[in-house]
Amino acid sequence: MGSKLADDSPDYIIMEHHDMPYEELASDFQIFTDPDLMLNMENIETSNIDLSDIVHQAGYPQSPGSETMDIASASIVEFPFSPQGRPPHFPFAGNLNFTLEVNSKDVHKKTFLYSHRLNRIYVDRKCNFSIQFNWDYIIAPQMFVRATVVFSDETQAEKRVERCVQHYHESSTAGMQAEIAKNVLHSSREIGTQGVYYCGNVDMADSWYSVLVQFDRTGPEPCTHAYQFSCKNSCTTGINRRAIAIIFTLEDKTGKVYGRQKVGARVCACPRRDMVKDETAEGVYKTGKKRIPSNQIDPPKTKKIKVENNLMEFDDKVYKLPPLEIVGSRAALCGLKTMLEMMELAVECRKKNEPDVTAQYAQRIVNLKNAIQKIENLKTPPPPPLSQ
Ligand SMILES: [Zn+2]
After folding, report:
1. Contact (Cβ atoms closer than 8 angstroms) between residue 95 and residue 50
2. Do residue 96 and residue 197 come from a single domain?
3. Is residue 309 part of a domain?
4. Locate the p53 DNA-binding domain: which residues (predicted)?
5. Which one of 29, 79, 247, 321 has the minimum C-beta count within 10 Å?
């Protein structure tokens, strides 16, 4: 067994062993000196193992001269494997070079967006979004990709992500199996589709819910799978406004992990509005210093998806809207509130460095709030509660 970092030992395969006691690996961890890395890796059991070890452990013969991993066809006791305990978040490509890309072809501006800057998907509930996976298919033609939704904040990471009571109940009474009905992430394929498995045990609190998809590759084209969320971030009793991410792991049939990647996610009714809000709040203005040109911040790794760099730009021109006729208080309020929200955000972002510029917002924000209040007052009052 090697004890070097993967970069130093290209002939080894990075793997995680579910059955390997931590003590055996403890010495390997002492080679890390970066405290951040140590923090991220504290829950990861990573080891470098010769490919022939895997084959021997799996209990079937290795065909001489063959470089193809035939792990997926090994006989195993449990399939699909359901991992227990908090899933590690630390991404690594591994020796099979596992990578993913949010599929640009399916980006739909109204229901599905992807922020390169924040590595986060913005998507509405029940809307498909597809992810493209790639790895060294010549060595490993048949592999599985597991998608597990986790809470991204460290304080919440120990908690299993579950659907809210209402949405779970809807699916459950419609006859959906419990481990599917509880999972906030579903495959876009019909339940029961060959090669798509739902994992997780409802009765075991440390059994995380995941979607496992089998891929059989014959060529270099990356493979794609579409998913959808079955709950929103705002579902109380469920995700309840906590930040979430999807962990994708490349696995063999026995559940051994060869690579891991992570994508943040926000499931909401207005993906564009929320992406603008998050990019503004988290992207450029995170440090509270003067605005950095957008081309200097985390350049996108791929150029396939057009990210609107002007989302961060604030101009000072004042626009006078013509008298408009809007049908429905909801539509009118939604429009005005979005404008109010964006102006308040601009003040929040600029007040520290540009106090003179932000002063011009004050009266206009008051006027907008008054206009919103007027419409609120005009709304049809709800019917009085029924008397007993
Ligand atoms: Zn829900």
Report:
1. no
2. yes
3. no
4. 93-281
5. 321
